[in-house]
Write a structure and sequence with these properties.
alpha/beta; eight-stranded parallel barrel; TIM Barrel; binds 3-methyl-2-oxobutanoic acid; binds sodium ion; elongated
């Protein structure tokens, strides 16, 4: 089916139909999201941790992101394709941010970019939108700023930080975002924001009074052997099942039970075999 666009997301929002977003980092995860008819596939910089084994998202380079966006594009034909702008690729200047956004569109075929930040990023967001690249905002917990925030923790639970989040959301709405991720804030604050802006809010750890939800696919599938964050719902436990399967394979290789020549091999024409001998 035809690829969804920012227009599709707008239509869902207007019809009050919740918007589904998941992350993808390669063709396999992108294809699963495609077949599950997920509205938006986000090549989140969480791929730095999930797929590349980094401690946080900060080491990811723009070229790394392009590489993964291209793979996701090849694996997914229907979801709106949004790419994160990595840490270090937009903070220096508006020009740097516009250049990075355009690179993700030109080289990765992203249809939109996501950028972390509120009031301080609003002028930059405006420039990217003016350049013709739709922008998804990202408010609340900003993982790229975990060094400043002192970790990955709930945001907006004090008066000062709640007021800041509302201001941030209004500023980026004004700057022209087509949607905004709201990460790790109390449910009621996410509702308040959702009621006070007129673009979709995509929650992660923000309750259900928002316009849509996003989760990291590795979390949904239980791909890692670790306790997930409170807001995650694991829909399967891939890690445990996959580990059992590989242990089983290992045992069968060692014992010779796999491959079974009658099922997993190819028969040879006996005349040819005799001549080869
Ligand atoms: O990088 C990411 O996966 C994200 C989502 C969790 C919103 O930014
Ligand atoms: Na991200």
């Amino acid at each position: 089916c035809a690829r969804k666009t920012v227009r599709t997301i707008q239509n869902l929002y207007e019809q009050k139909i919740p918007i589904s977003v998941v992350t993808a980092w390669d063709a396999i995860t992108a294809n699963i999201a495609d077949e599950a008819q997920i509205d938006t596939v986000l090549v989140g910089d969480s791929l730095a941790m999930v797929a590349l084994g980094y401690e946080d998202t900060n080491a990811l380079e723009l070229e790394d992101m392009v590489h993964h966006v291209r793979a996701v594009n090849r694996g997914n034909r229907s979801s709106l394709l949004v790419a994160d702008i990595p840490f270090g690729s937009f903070e220096e200047s508006e020009a740097q941010a516009v250049r990075s956004a355009i690179t993700l569109v030109k080289k990765g075929k992203a249809q939109a970019v996501k950028i972390e930040g509120g009031v301080e990023m609003a002028p930059t967001i405006k420039k990217i939108v003016q350049a013709g690249v739709p922008v998804m905002g990202h408010i609340g917990l900003a993982p790229q700023k975990h060094n400043t925030l002192g970790g990955f923790r709930l945001q907006g639970n004090t008066l000062q930080s709640a007021v800041k989040i509302v201001e941030d959301c209004k500023a980026i709405e004004e700057a022209g975002v087509f949607a905004m991720v709201i990460e790790c804030v109390p449910n009621k604050l996410a509702k308040l924001v959702t009621d006070s802006v007129s673009v979709p809010t995509i929650g992660i750890g923000a309750g259900n009074a928002v316009s849509g939800q996003v989760l990291v696919t590795a979390d949904i599938l239980g791909m890692e052997d670790k306790k997930p964050a409170k807001f995650v719902k694991q829909y399967m436990h891939f890690h445990g099942q996959a580990k059992l399967a590989l242990e089983n394979y290992n045992d069968e290789v060692k014992s010779g039970a796999y491959p079974d020549p009658n099922h997993h091999g190819y028969k040879m024409n006996s005349e040819v075999l005799n001549k080869v001998k």
